[in-house]
Amino acid sequence: MATLTRTRAGAGLRWVIKRRHGDLLLLDFGLVGMKEGDLLRDGTGKEEAVFHIFGGTCSAEGDSFSVKKLGERKNVFDGRASALYIPPNTRYIITALTDLKAALIEAPAASGGPVREIRPRDVDVHETGKGNWKRTVHEVGMDGVDAKVLMWGETFVPPGNWSGFPPAKHDVEDPPRESHMEELNYFRTNPPDGFGLQRVYTADGYDQVFVVGDSDLVTLPRGYHALAAAPGCALYNLWVLAAFKERKLMAHEDPRYARMLSPRAEREQ
Question: CA dihedral in degrees (150, 156, 159, 164; nearest 10)?
């Protein structure tokens, strides 16, 4: 079921979640901390990967690609993200041009599209919800990236507001009603001593509420889920999805809260 992991700062690549962690079958998630001049040298093997920058600047090179400079913001609350999508069987070297913080995400994929650098201008930004469940969504790796399994983005929740409401799930392959995708959420808070609450529940009686703080991570293999930010605390959520079959997000909202939907159905995030 869902799990809460409290991460800590450190140097280099530190894997936080590896495949088959609890009920997760697809996702690997690592945190990267690099000083100017540090190198991260690796390859994707049978996985596709995403190098998602929280803050700082880097260059990247590898099999048939070269990126001179990627990353523009200082931290997650300082603008839109930059990221690099890397398909399977691709060697790469990432060099920090400044102090750098990022996430490395992997999932098994039989094939993949070309290497894709994602810059702030490529991020699709929109507001969703209304009232105290209004939030801002940054779609980083959705329709514009030719990935085969991974989808990801960022949600910014204002102090005291909810996100992912009405609660929705995506744990059954039942198109066009629902797609089977596992998920993880990585959080940052502003200020750092803030917190949020994430509820995860199922129709068969599982019900868990996690208190999430700065740099916490929650895995979501199944169940309805929703998130709230504490008053006085802006909440950042990096959400990552991995598809078991079709890479298309079809989320099923809890019918008990259908009254909350506007005439134009809101997205899950």
Answer: -40
Token pair recorded at residue 188 = 């940052």
pLDDT tens-digit profile, the chain (269 residues)? 899 999 987 899 999 999 776 789 999 999 999 999 999 999 999 999 999 999 999 999 998 899 999 999 999 999 999 999 999 999 999 999 999 999 999 999 999 999 999 999 999 999 999 999 999 999 999 998 999 999 999 999 999 999 999 999 999 999 999 999 999 999 999 999 999 999 999 999 999 999 999 999 999 999 999 999 999 999 999 999 999 999 999 999 999 987 887 544 444 44
Query: Can you list the pairs that 203-209 forms with residues at least 24 positions away whose Cβ atoms lie under 8 Å?
Result: 206/1, 208/1, 208/2
CA pair distance 119, 98, nearest whole angstrom: 17
Q: Which two tokens stand for residue 81?
A: 């993200």
CATH code of the region 3-260: 2.60.120.10
For the chain, the structural domain boundaries read 3-260
| Pairwise CA distance, residues 146 & 135, whole Å | 26
